[in-house]
């Protein structure tokens, strides 16, 4: 079984929308909210889901990590400032790290996705 979990809980879709449609301050505020959730609430939520999967007796679980969204060398979305791209990547790294830590603590396999989209 493979799963990817956490990004929707952290509001990454809304965060990306806020960053594309608004100024740097609005983007950074939304990223700060998502990052606070990732640090504060997401580990317990992941733990509950991973515990439930473990109770199902699934023999092999692989948790997919989260990539960095922007490669600074390839500015695909020119509407996003360097400030926004850097902050989004930092939040994606945080999400990937929390997901990876919880997956390892439950004995699940992990596939890190370090490439850029």
TrEMBL record:
Q: Which SUPFAM superfamilies match?
A: SGNH hydrolase (SSF52266)
InterPro entries with a match to the protein in the record: SEST-like, SGNH_hydro_sf
Provide the species name.
Answer: Streptomyces thioluteus
The protein here is known as SGNH hydrolase-type esterase domain-containing protein
Record-linked PANTHER family: LIPASE 2 (PTHR37981), SGNH HYDROLASE-TYPE ESTERASE DOMAIN-CONTAINING PROTEIN (PTHR37981:SF1)
């Amino acid at each position: 079984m493979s799963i990817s979990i956490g990004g929707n809980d952290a509001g990454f879709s809304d965060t990306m929308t806020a960053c594309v449609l608004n100024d740097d301050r609005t983007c950074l505020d939304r990223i700060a909210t998502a990052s606070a959730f990732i640090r504060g609430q997401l580990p317990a939520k992941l733990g509950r889901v991973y515990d439930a999967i473990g109770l199902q007796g699934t023999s092999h679980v692989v948790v997919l990590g989260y990539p960095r969204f922007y490669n600074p060398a390839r500015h695909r979305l020119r509407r996003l400032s360097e400030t926004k791209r850097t902050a989004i990547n930092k939040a994606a790294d945080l999400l990937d790290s929390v997901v990876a830590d919880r997956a390892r603590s439950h004995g699940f396999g992990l596939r890190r996705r370090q490439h850029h989209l």
